[in-house]
């Protein structure tokens, strides 16, 4: 069959359901806040934000959740609350969203990039140990795409060196490791509630901790340096990182259905991984699912697509799938040490990098389906996911046509 990209009939014309998935309670919650005329109220125990903080902390089995404006501010607050200061080093994975590293840079610290595992895309424990120096003040681990890090060796290493761990859970709401939610292993965790996340209010974030002192410090830092209850004085520097009541209400509504969504996505991801594996394509493998002792947050369904083996550039492959009605994340990915911000001396942002060869290979071959493209694809029925498999198969059968069109400049 001729590819839709080349004038053929698209395999799928009905769009997949979008993301976020809405519920009538979401609208009702927003209207109630609107009519209350109390749109910002973090210091009120009966506020939407305070209620969400209690519910989110209880969901994780910890004592404190502190809402903030976004995931980047959550990381900044977490690092600052731990005492990270200008010139200190913060270990981060070389494959993650830029904010994991820039949060450290924004408070004057120096990110140190560590290589990642080629399958899970998560930071390598051995790389963490090799990257440590006398200036190391924190380790930031990222449960990338919702895949939990291998936490046992990381936490054992951190404890032996006396270095605090910050869990970046921006893509891993609801994921577990050995029966515990991620975000409860390190001294502090940071969550994002941006548009594509498992819990979303468009923007927003939270700091999670079981430590009373860190929680108090985080609450002060998000409110211009004022501890809870303090109104007239500012004992220290802080930021205006307060969440609105609209966001708190929407997140409360969504939290109630998070587990059921995760269960549905787990079924979809397992089915999709199995069916794609049956195609036996040497240049495509997808969805590294976690070991038996962990459950996935399923922020997305990541593929390994090797353009060197297929002969078709990644963006062209993604365009061909999109023309068949299959949305993919075709944004070019770079390992963090290769971002202009960190590689250029002119940018003036200090960093240090270890050997990141596997990270660069992941960046070269990574393509995503699901929430990063605004798609709730993983929530669909198997019959709908069969369209994904059929579209990949159709593109595979037409690789020569894609290569020829690219060579002739007619793609």
Structure report:
This protein is α/β, with parallel strands linked by helices. The protein has 2 domains: 24-255, Type I PLP-dependent aspartate aminotransferase-like (Major domain) (Aspartate Aminotransferase, domain 2), CATH 3.40.640; 258-408, Aspartate Aminotransferase, domain 1 (Alpha-Beta Complex), CATH 3.90.1150. 38% of the residues lie in helices and 14% in strands. The protein has 15 helices and 14 strands. The strands form 3 sheets. An 8-stranded mixed beta sheet has the order 1-9-8-5-4-2-3-13, with helices on both faces. Strands 7-6-11 form a 3-stranded antiparallel beta sheet, with no helix packed on it. A 3-stranded antiparallel beta sheet has the order 10-12-14. Strand 2, helix 4 (99-106) and strand 3 form a beta-alpha-beta unit. Helix 2 runs parallel beside helix 8, helix 3 (71-81) crosses helix 4 (99-106) and helix 9 (258-277) runs parallel beside helix 14 (382-397). The model has no long low-confidence stretch (mean pLDDT 95).
